[in-house]
Amino acid sequence: MNEQRKVAVILVRHDLSQTPPTLAECQALMWSGQNSVARYWQENAEDWFQFAAFDFFGPYDIVRPPPPEDRDVLRDRAKAAASGAGVNLGGYDTLVVFDFPGRVGGVGYDHGADGIGPGHAATFGALDNHTFFCHEFGHVLGFDHTYGIPNRGDGGTQPNPMYGDPYDIMSSATFGDSAPTMNLPSPFAGFPGSTSAGPMLARAQLHFTKPMAMESIGKVRHIHEDGANEVFSIFPAGHGGTGTTELVIFHPSGEDAEARGRIYVEYRQPFDLHWRTRWDNGLAADGDNRDRRGVIVHVVKNIPDSNTAAVWYAGRICFPTPDADVVVDTPLGTAVVTVSDEFMHQNPPAYVRVRVTRQTRARVSIVTKTEDVVTVTSSEKRPIPGWEWAGEFTWERRDTVRTTRYIPVTTGLGGKSPNDIATTVKVNWYLGNSMLVPDSGIATELPLGAPHSVHIHYSIDTPERVLTLFNEPADGTFAIRVQASASDPPTWYTPITTDSSYEVDGRTEGWGRDYHDFMDFWERITHPIPIPHVGPPRPDDYRVWIERLRRTFDRLRSSNPDVATRMHPLLIDQERIVRGIQRYR
Length: 585
Hints:
Number of strands: 30
Structural class: alpha+beta
Helix content: 10-25%
Radius of gyration: 33 Å
Strand content: 35-45%
Distance between the termini: 64 Å
Number of helices: 9
């Protein structure tokens, strides 16, 4: 099931002193190129649009008055030029006009679409960019603007929410003051501005306008307010797999026929292994930009001063961030979108787990990640009591520097507006009984039950407010409380807290690697178990066993040649036993 479209493309020139693109170059940009406008829409609309005809005409020379002359005039003059050349445009439901060069003295004409859906025309300036081409072509395919962050992209003097969605091609006039576009490998010949492309069409906009494009291939999960309160998985937009959820829709009680109050949840993250996600490569991977990658939330509500429902950008949850939820204002009350803690410290996760509910409570948790760097400060050879016959082993003294990252994850805080960034949530860190200020330094604290103070190096990253600690090995073994206190003034005045700990054995001693290699070898000597499988042992099982024994012996020989020499007769005996078993069987 899909929609068939017949497209006519007319190339016109209004400056006879310049050489326009050829029809072949125009065809590559619009239709046949790997990153063409038609390819963009086929990939971003789940192959919903099939182009039964994509024909190119011109170039024709026309006369234009100075800009900004209305786009309807250009459309009509282009149609008249084509008709004068014998072209019958009656069989096409979509018209595209390329205006070359589209500017006079550095001033551009008024290009764009003259309406929404079949029967309308899109006019392009040949010097415009790929994103503009895709946006305007989207109008004639049937897509309207998305709304969100107030901006002046509509040309007015006061901020307006039209074009205020930094995650949708249908807001490309400003993207809410962000720039989530990427550069194609090279511009299309004849169109020097055509490298700037993307981002993807929002899954929310696609479903709102052409719901069956995603429904027919099983990429939508529906959640109802009066249904089960459950957690669900979302895969990145452009994932490509039929039956893989790329959009979750929360249907509130009282949702009307125009879908007012509906909440859309999608995950925007480009992956090299998913070809279609490349259109999102322009989304920022980190920083405070509004176009960072993560879970994106849209809501359906009226366009200002009208009774027409439209898709609005409602907020986002980016990774990593201390803020794991978005509070969404809808015409039917607020709802909360929450991402499970397990994904908040990943960048990028392959998928995310999300919940949509009416209920929320303020909460903070801590995700920890630890890495040890062990340095051997001294060593000596000594026998192990009772094992003197095996030889001498290494006894080591070691210093350990443990680096632990503490990642705060909050819900019920922040996430109150489309403009929200991670710093909306305020997180303070405490070590022992002391608040860590400034954002980096060395804290001197007395751990509980310890006879002396310890020195702990710390740093706090912004805006994610991730705390990193590492010890001085001379302080030895200790444990100390780590506490996070989170709030979002002025909404939540009383901070909420949670505890963790920092524990380390900074200075230790014990047997070295050669001892562990020896015990591994001895275990295989004393427990000669063939490779496990169902049924009686097979001759090849013993070969696998002896190969594993040889590998453990090689490791021992590398770490302690003297002990390995003493153990070599045992290896020879085991090899002889295996050969006997194999001959007998």
